[in-house]
Amino acid sequence: MYKVVIKNSCRCVLKSGMHESLEFETQEEAKKEAESMIEKMKTTFCQKHQFIINEQFGDFTIYIKSRS
After folding, report:
1. DSSP state, 34?
2. Domain ranges in the chain?
3. pLDDT exceeding 70 applies to what percent of the chain?
4. CB 38 within 8 A of CB 52
């Protein structure tokens, strides 16, 4: 199983109804979902944060950081 996990969730994530942790059968499915989530965050969220994907051992973590 491959995971997509959102760390440091902001209010926008909670309001959007996005799941903070998802599991997939293949690494490709996990990567595709992580990229899709990042695109949604960049286009629909409040723009007060930046979003970074980190891939490690086939799992994808999305970090949410405040814009400086």
Report:
1. H
2. 2-66
3. 99
4. no
Among candidates 67, 68, 63, 10, which has minimal Cα distance to 34? 63
Report the candidate in 60, 64, 66, 65 with the shortest Cα–Cα distance to residue 30: 60
Long-range contacts of 18-26 (CB under 8 A, 24+ apart): 25/1, 26/2
Q: How far is CA 13 from CA 22, 25, 26, 54, in A?
A: 14, 24, 24, 18
Ranges of H-type helices in the chain:
11-16, 27-44
Residue 57 · residue 50 · CB < 8 Å: no
Task: For 35-66, write each residue's pLDDT tens digit.
Answer: 999 999 999 998 899 999 999 999 999 999 98
Both structure tokens of 8: 């440091």
